[in-house]
Amino acid sequence: MGRKDMREKKSNYKGRIIVALDTPDLGFAKKLVRILKDEIKIFKVGSELMTAHGPRAVRTVLELGAEVFLDLKFHDIPNTVAQATRAAVRLGICMLNLHVAGGLQMMQEACIASADEARRNNLKPPKLLGVTLLTSLSDEEVHEEIGLPKSINRIAVQYAQLAQKAGLDGVVSSALEARKIKTQCGPNFLVVSPGIRPEWAGRDDQRRVLSPREAFELGASYIVIGRPITEADDPGKAIRQISRSL
Ligand code: C5P
Question: Among residues 45, 48, 90, 245, which is most buried (max CB within 10 A)?
Fold first, then answer.
């Protein structure tokens, strides 16, 4: 690969890193966005920040010129999820997720609601992602506690196919399943992968971890990184280190 190709590949990776703003402190979230926004385009607002500050959390990130992946992992009856999806779309986010375990009808109604609400408000519809299995779960937990008979790997692919059938744009899934999912669902089906740990970071509660580079090599479309950046003494340095590793 020539130098120019390498540079292009690297800048291409950079736009595909999502930083999880997992903090209840809006001031700290703001500070992180300010520090990282030259490197990072999309920030993930999850249940911690959203429960503490509501839609203001999303608006704060948008006002700083970044985009928002709203990670509330909707899982409820179809009507409730469809209405919650409409409210999320009105915030002007670029990605939203819901649990595949909520079923085909729930996902289909969310897709219809998202497209309709975006059209009514003249907004671009967000990418809708299905959550397959949490990356904090081990095979034993999935079998013994949750009672699913298949391996995580097979469930993730089956869930991805169901998400695609419902009209979703992709799934949130470990990069360990990315290749299989892309083989089954096609190269344009998004695989957004958390459970990422640079070599220098601890695992925390994540079981199936991969480095940023490994995750992209395995076919992840985007990677989500939280604590290795948000809990770093110097988040700016952490992201530059990750960027260099790609
Ligand atoms: O701090 P860490 O890098 O582990 O953060 C990962 C983020 O991705 C968290 O915000 C978590 O909620 C989210 N996530 C996950 N596993 C999934 C789906 C989402 O870790 N399957």
Answer: 45
The DSSP secondary-structure symbol of 39 reads T
Express each pLDDT in 110-166 by its tens digit: 999 999 999 999 999 999 999 998 878 888 898 889 888 888 888 999 999 999 999
> What atom in ligand 1 is closest to the CA of residue 44?
10
Domains and CATH numbers, the chain: 3-245 (3.20.20.70)
CB 34 within 8 A of CB 64: yes
0.90 exceeded by pTM: yes
Ligand 1, atom nearest to 20 Cα: 10
Asked about 73 being catalytic, the answer comes back as: yes
Taking CA atoms, 72 is separated from 31, 101, 107, 183, in Å, by 22, 14, 14, 28
